[in-house]
Amino acid sequence: MTAIQEERTTEDLKALAERAGRELEDASALEILQWAAETFGNRFCVTSSMEDAVVAHLASRALPGVDVVFLDTGYHFPETIGTRDAVEAVMDVNVITLTPRQTVAEQDAEYGPKLHDRDPDLCCALRKVKPLEEGLKGYLAWATGLRRDESETRANTPVVGWDEKRQKVKISPIARWSQEDVQTYVAEHGVLTNPLLMDGYASVGCAPCTRRVLEGEDARAGRWAGRSKTECGLHG
What we know:
Layout: H1 10-23, H2 29-40, E1 44-47, H3 54-62, E2 66-71, H4 78-90, E3 93-98, H5 104-111, H6 115-118, H7 120-135, E4 141-143, E5 160-163, E6 168-171, H8 179-189
Parallel strand pairs: 1-2, 1-4, 2-3, 4-6
Antiparallel strand pairs: 5-6
Helix pairs in contact: 2-3
């Protein structure tokens, strides 16, 4: 199969995604990414929060030099920025850093300080969702690190699906993996991970909205703790 050369209609891409989701359900993560590389070529990218570099590492095996898109919200832990810099330095990927239209200071001036405390949905929309929508415009497909075992809201994540909001093919190659699978892959391949994962954080987002998880909590419990919010808006 060769990479898509011509522009496909939205209907074609949606049908392709739905068919691939069925056909690749039992495929390995690497096989799923090899399909993506063969199908989309340089119109395919990986998004990474730099919690770990597992999907970026897998994608680099399928498509050396693959674009890895990172959202620098201005609120990240220093460890997250350090992980991004390390990934860029040692892996065969092309890291692309996206930034919001406004700096944190400019946002504070317009909306008031600590918007993340008063209206976290709006803060995520301004600093994550809108920049990603702009950053993905040149791609037909994008890959994420979503896993079904992370939370109830992610339990039905397809390995290949259709992103209706962005009208793109959305690939989640490790959707069927467990946390143990992730740890095994990290150990086997020496994959970079965010140091915060060794310090009580099970899921790493922006510093003001992330805390360590308690024993027995699911991996996403440390995000927007005490609120009904469970997603930043990138995936739903």
